[in-house]
Amino acid sequence: MSSNGHADLPVPALARRSQALKGRVRVPGDKSVSHRSLIFGALTIGETRIFGLLEGEDVLNTAKACAALGADVERVGEGEWRVRGLGVGGLRAPEGVLDFGNAGTGSRLMMGVVAGNPITATFDGDASLRRRPMRRILDPLEQMGAEVVDAAEGGRLPLTLKGPQELVPITYESPVASAQIKSAVLLAGLGAPGETTVIEKEASRDHTERMLTHFGAEVTVEPYGEHGRKVTLKGRPELKPAPIRVAADPSSAAFPLVAALIVPGSDVVIEGVMTNPLRTGLLITLREMGADISFENERVEGGESVADIRVRASKLTGVDVPAERAPSMIDEYPVLAVAAAFATGETRMNGLSELRVKESDRLAAVAEGLAQASVAYRIEGDDLIVAGAGAAPGGGTVETHMDHRIAMSFLVMGLATDTPLKVDDISFIATSFPTFLSQMRGLGALIDTEVVAA
Ligand code: S3P
């Protein structure tokens, strides 16, 4: 095991054409909300109780970072955690390096937290995270008075960030629609006097805003332009402990969901999935493609709308996915590309530039994976066009490039390809969906991890 928990040696797997998938699953807690639960707990005086926390490597690294900054973080049962924090502005400088492993969200949100405290901390991560751009976070934090003491080329990890004694509140118009940028600025803004505002031209996921309100901060959200939002936070609030129930992650639910759509005869229910409208772009798109997806038992849990999602195998037709939908399904394009391969006709996914800076260059990784499965596609600028043929041959080996979602997407594809599809390394699945294999197998998916060399 590496310091981040996943196996050092690659773990290959082979997915094979499966019989109809049947049954009910509850996928783990939402990753975005899980990171934020721990972070808000650390910024609150008193005890925050969390239920249904995702216990994946990414979130566990955030838990370790919160503890290193002085919070008391305790696991009391499966998915049940307690955090006793030190309040806004009360965190301590960590002794060692904060290692976030593979996690962009954990590292970037925590940069905002550190900037909002008069402390210095060093951030690091694995080879994938070290390649990812951090300037987009550091730029606004520097405007607020934080200092980048040291950083690798281009402002990348490892880097050392120093929070100022007196932070300056800013109005920041984000150049990209990114919940990570918005959240880092707002988290820093907690420590600033006066109002910190973030403007985004397209609305990104709003968990930070919702949780700020849940913990007692004053936040206003106004529409901005056609698709955007303006979020304003009143600085230096006293955050009050509040229990959090984490709904199931729609980005993880996407894998059994697409699997059920493409494996003939399937009928699957995914329980308690968060249906926050800023996370449902995939469901909208799949329904446009003709997918039989229905919501059952709709309810509100922990301040988020939730439903049991029933999905039945469906004949899909290619569609055009507008660029402005990207923020609401940014993590779902790899698995949408899989669904598109089994559709009839072209699916055009527009405006995917942000995919190039995820855990891998996802545009390139998806394209390579489709090629390995002998699925026709082309890339035009930042658009991916998949030529669906109603079926996919399979047969190759997909490189995951340290990217959990590439691994899961192509394992899902292999459940319906003519010949098995191999994935070179599934160890990174543990960052976001540690129960993926067992839960997929529980539905009837044929995935072997002891791959015999071809
Ligand atoms: C996340 C925001 C998204 C998403 C990531 C989680 C978050 O990133 O890809 O998996 O929790 O804020 P960007 O905000 O950079 O698009």
TrEMBL record:
Main location, first listed in the record: cytoplasm
Q: Where in the cell is it found?
A: Cytoplasm
Query: Which parts of the sequence bind 3-phosphoshikimate?
Result: K31, S32, R36, S178, Q180, D331, K358
MF terms (GO), sorted A to Z: 3-phosphoshikimate 1-carboxyvinyltransferase activity
Enzyme type, top EC level: transferase
Where, by residue number, is the active site? D331 (proton acceptor)
- Highest taxon of source: Bacteria
Q: Which InterPro entries match?
A: Enolpyruvate_Tfrase_dom, Enolpyruvate_Tfrase_sf, EPSP_synthase, EPSP_synthase_CS, RNA3'P_cycl/enolpyr_Trfase_a/b
Q: Which GO terms describe its cellular component?
A: cytoplasm
Q: Which Gene3D superfamilies match?
A: Enolpyruvate transferase domain
Q: In which pathway does it act?
A: Metabolic intermediate biosynthesis; chorismate biosynthesis; chorismate from D-erythrose 4-phosphate and phosphoenolpyruvate: step 6/7
GO BP annotations of the record are: amino acid biosynthetic process; aromatic amino acid family biosynthetic process; chorismate biosynthetic process
- Residue intervals of the Enolpyruvate transferase domain: 17-439
Q: At which positions is phosphoenolpyruvate bound?
A: K31, G104, R132, Q180, R362, R405
Task: Recite the UniProt keywords alphabetically.
Answer: Amino-acid biosynthesis, Aromatic amino acid biosynthesis, Cytoplasm, Transferase
Q: What does this protein do?
A: Catalyzes the transfer of the enolpyruvyl moiety of phosphoenolpyruvate (PEP) to the 5-hydroxyl of shikimate-3-phosphate (S3P) to produce enolpyruvyl shikimate-3-phosphate and inorganic phosphate.
NCBIfam families recorded = aroA
Subunit structure, as described in the record: Monomer.
Per the record, the similarity remark reads:
Belongs to the EPSP synthase family.
Q: What is this protein called?
A: 3-phosphoshikimate 1-carboxyvinyltransferase
